[in-house]
Design a protein that fits this description.
This protein is an alpha/beta fold. The protein is about 30% helix and about 15% strand.
C-alpha cells in the first residue's frame, strides 16, 4: 500500500543556521536542523499528510513535511525512489543528511556524531504513527 524509507535519522543541531536546503525550498523551512522531515512526491502527498499527522499526534518531536517534484535535489535520494518509479506512494523520513550533517559520507561520519536520544524519540514516534496508520480504513 505504501513505503516509508528511513534515511539518515540521527543527526540534529539546535544551532541556528545548521540546516541548509536546495535553492528551490530554502525559504520554506526552518534554518535550524533539529527536526525530522517527511518527504514525498506529488503522487504521495496523501501519504505525507497522513504520516506526518500521525507522527505529530504520537510523538513530541519537531517535524516538517514536504511534497516535492522528484527532480528537487535530495527528494529522490533514497530507496523510496524505486517505489515512486513503479507508481507506489512512498516517502523518505530523514534528518536531511547532507543538507545538515557536515560529516555525511566522510571519514569523520562516526557513531559518536549521532544523537541517540533524539533518534530513539523519532523511532518511538514512528512506531506509534505506523501503528495508527495501519488501522486506517482502506
Amino acid at each position: 500500500m505504501a513505503m516509508l524509507s528511513l534515511e539518515a535519522i540521527g543527526y540534529y543541531s539546535d544551532k541556528p543556521g545548521s540546516q541548509s536546503y536546495s535553492s528551490i525550498v530554502r525559504h520554506l523551512y526552518p534554518d535550524t536542523g533539529n527536526y525530522i522531515a517527511f518527504i514525498g512526491n506529488l503522487k504521495s502527498r496523501a501519504l505525507v499528510r497522513s504520516s506526518i499527522d500521525a507522527f505529530r499526534r504520537t510523538a513530541d518531536f519537531p517535524s516538517e513535511g514536504a511534497v516535492l517534484p522528484a527532480w528537487t535535489p535530495g527528494a529522490d535520494w533514497s530507496d523510496h525512489w524505486s517505489f515512486w518509479k513503479e507508481g507506489y506512494p512512498a516517502l523518505m523520513i530523514t534528518d536531511t543528511a547532507p543538507f545538515r550533517n557536515p560529516y555525511y559520507h566522510k571519514p569523520e561520519d562516526t557513531p559518536e556524531k549521532l544523537d541517540y536520544d533524539r533518534m530513539a524519540r523519532v523511532v518511538n514516534g514512528l512506531v506509534k504513527a505506523i501503528m495508527e496508520l495501519s488501522h486506517i480504513e482502506k
